[in-house]
Amino acid sequence: MKRWQVLPLTAVVAVCFSVPAWSQPKIEFDSRIIDFGTAFPNQQLHHDFVFWNKGTETLEITKVSKTCGCTAPVLSATTVLPSASAIVSVTMRTSAPVKKSERVILDTNDPENPQVQLALEADVKTLWQFTPKTSFLFNNVPFDSEQTMEIFMKHVDGEPFKILATKVNFPELSVKTGEPTPDGIPIQVTVRSGKEKKIINDQLMIETDHPKQRNVNVAVFARIVGVIEFSRNRVFFGSVNAGETKSIEVIASLPSPAGMPDLQFTEITSDSEAVTAQVTGKSADGKIRILINFTAPKQPGYISGNLTFKTNLPAEPETTLPFSALVRGTRG
pLDDT digit string (tens) for 30-79? Predict the structure, then answer.
């Protein structure tokens, strides 16, 4: 005679509800991290992350995100059947020399791994050494003048190389390279100004014959200021409460006064009613003291504009000085 064992109701319920836990997708990777080791700027590093669905239900990749715009992930499939595999193909673009670490994030329907992070790492190093400076930063450049700066470019391990081409974007800039020396290849950048005030913020693009890093960028900056120089390139009054007045003194001078008449301002105007300026004195060496006043209006916000100075100089009959301020509202 067979005996039947009666299970408690709670045990039956537990068995019934444990079955779906066995029937679910499960994502598994061969590796979730790739270390590219040493890399160089402007490289594209590529890796394929392979993953499998080790579960018994269809795996869904519902979202792919990244922590940097320099990383481009591509999925071979967003739906993966049980026992099948797929690929996350990732390309990471390097830029400045730095230890780089980026992440690609997958959202899945795997209840045990709803979000999976893939890591990409590289130690980005440069092949080039620049002396005595690492960029072309010019002083203020007066109207109708020329300034030249020379920098030597050398391979960090002393390997020979050639500069195939150079390029700048501003017409005021020109570039010249010389023959190799023990210090490296000389690169000269020249700024030739006209009669227009402007800021030159450019990149000198250098193309080399080195297979590991063919392209190198070097910063070039210059400010064309005219023949009149102010002690401040911009007057910033900072934060000022509504209704309050703040004053700042500025000195105007001629850096190269030879052949110039004594500087005079015949008229000063402002494009904002909140800002006024007047000459308060002149030193023995011809420098002019100017007091600039800002009376904050009642309306809070950011104010900016220009002071315009009419002069007695044929070389620069008019010059401008920008100003700005942040007006804060009064507390009630």
Answer: 999 999 998 888 788 999 999 999 999 999 999 999 888 878 899 999 99
Range of the domain at 58: 25-124
C-alpha 322: how far from its chain's center?
24
How does pLDDT run across 231-284, given as a tens digit for each residue? Answer: 998 999 999 999 999 999 999 998 777 678 889 999 999 999 999 999 999 988
Same structural domain for residues 236 and 189?
no
Cα–Cα distance between 69 and 50 in angstroms, integer?
Answer: 22
Alpha-helical segments (H) within the chain: 9-22
Within a 10 A sphere around the Cβ of 228, how many other Cβ atoms?
23
pTM higher than the cut 0.70 = no
- Domain membership flag for residue 136: yes
Under 8 Å between Cβ of 81 and 27: no
Cα distances (Å, whole numbers) of residue 251 to 15, 194, 258, 281, 304: 88, 24, 19, 10, 20
CA 55 to chain centroid, in Å, comes to: 45
3-class DSSP state of 11: helix
CATH number, position 182: 2.60.40.10
- Please report how many Cα atoms fall inside a 13 Å half-sphere around the Cα of residue 35, on the Cβ side: 4
Same structural domain, 248 and 191: no
1 within a domain of the structure (yes/no): no
Q: Which amino acid is at 117?
A: Q
The verdict on residue 18 lying in a domain is no
Burial tier of 5 (Cβ tally within 10 Å: 0-12, 13-18, 19+): exposed
Cβ–Cβ under 8 Å, residues 237 and 250 = no
What single-letter amino acid sits at 65? S
